[in-house]
Amino acid sequence: MTRVKGITRRWLINTLGVIAAIVIVIVICLSFAIKVFFYNSIEQTISGRSTELINVFGSYTTESSTDFITMATEYVENFPDKELMELMVINSAGRVVITSTGFPPDESQPMPDYEMAKSSSGGVATWSGTLVSGEPVMALTRVITNSQGSYLGAVRYIVSLEMANQRVMAFVAIFITSGVVIILLVLFSGSFFIRSIVNPVKKMSVTAKRIAQGDFNAKIDKLHDDEIGDLCDAINNMAQELGVAEKMKNDFISSVSHELRTPLTAIKGWAETMQLGGVSDKETFDKGMSVIIKEASRLTGIVEELLDFSRLQNGRMMLMMDKTDILAELDESIYMLKERASSEGKHLLYDEPDYVGPVLGDRNRLKQVFFNIIDNALKYTPADGVVAIEVSADQDNVKIKVTDNGVGISPEDLPRVKEKFYKANQTVRGSGIGLAVADEIISMHNGTLDIESSLGVGTTVTITLPLIKEKSSDSGNPQ
372 and 425: one domain? Predict the structure, then answer.
């Protein structure tokens, strides 16, 4: 047998269990109430009949039991409800002397109401119980006294409760049937509701497992525009994003592999050539060593970039913050790239301003960012293209703009170029993490890195950094 588990089990225990408990309590309460109602009705009927005795014996003065028996016999004979209840006349000795049925009384029958009535201040007592025969009855005894208060005897009314109990049981059966119908209706309607949740969740679970196993094309059909539908959309979007991330990761691995392989091939080729004695003159030897050193430096740069990205991902990158001359670091980065720009036939333009205030930053990391941004601009600028660098400042910030007239970035790629592993142009060398690292470093300096670009026109990267607030003397010269 299949074990009920999960949401269905919780619903059965929580919702259906609570509803069943409430229905049971209501059925019990209604059953008790209907029983009390019937019993009270019978008791009120008997009590109403017994009050007639006050009128019959209210002015009775004699102490003769014979006269009492005579009057009681007359009352019993004229009693109109003999078919509904039985009457017994009890003499002063406690013996039943007359019954409305005409049959001799059963001396073995219990009469607790009679004993209670004799000891009661009002002279009336009621008892519900079972006769020796097993018949359920309700009995009321009213003690009769004369006008002087002397005890003469008692009249006992007995009503069978079998009919009342049958009616009570009929109502109880109706209540139970209604309760079962309510529970079945709840179960029936709830099963549809549970299926509308459980079945989609099962499908989502299967799809999520497929996604976890790498099938990012797995999709869930959205059937309803509700919370479950929103969850389907979220999982579908997650699968799509994971697919994009997986592609970006694979492209990144491929790109880095290519980036590493190219310099390694050059280094290995020249090293083998030099080892086998293939270099006979100093000029060729110097050229080979230059290639090895250049490509080794390129490898070092790639590895450092990967390490920086790893540090950023793990939150382990530490900045050595100090008062920094931003122009000096920018000048050094430009100087490092001037020869390359010239060799590639590209124009690197920079008009250094007279003065820009210092910033609080890590000079090496800022130099790394400037180098990365200018290097990117040169990579995407064609021969005879222009890369222009402009510096401006106000009282609060310094802005460094690097503008090129290269290929530009498409509107679809522009919002994502600062994401890790993302490369808008796969034909150009690079790992796809340089801008992500640069953006994070600038953010750690409380600055911003903004990119504006138009496809086929060019790109402008703006780096904004806060200046250190310098105190001024009375003459207004900076200290």
Answer: yes
Give the residue ranges of the chain where pLDDT is below 70: 1-7, 54-66, 147, 252, 255, 258-259, 278-280, 313, 421-432, 470-479
Q: How many domains is the chain built from?
A: 3
User: Which of 101, 132, 160 is at the close of a domain?
Assistant: 160
For the chain, give the mean pLDDT. 83
Is the pTM here over 0.85, yes or no?
no
Digit-coded pLDDT (tens) for 388-424: 999 999 889 999 999 999 888 888 888 888 877 666 6
DSSP state, residue 399: E
Task: Return the sign of the alpha-carbon dihedral for residues 272, 274, 278, 283.
Answer: positive
pLDDT in tens, 166-195: 999 999 999 999 999 988 888 888 777 777
Same domain flag for 308 and 355: no
Residue 115 in any domain: the answer is yes
Residue 370, both tokens: 């400037």
Q: What is the DSSP string of 277-345?
A: T---SHHHHHHHHHHHHHHHHHHHHHHHHHHHHHHHHHT------EEE-HHHHHHHHHHHHHHHHHHTT
Q: Which residue has the tokens 């036939």?
A: 345
Which residue, 97, 115, 93, is CA-closest to 105? 97
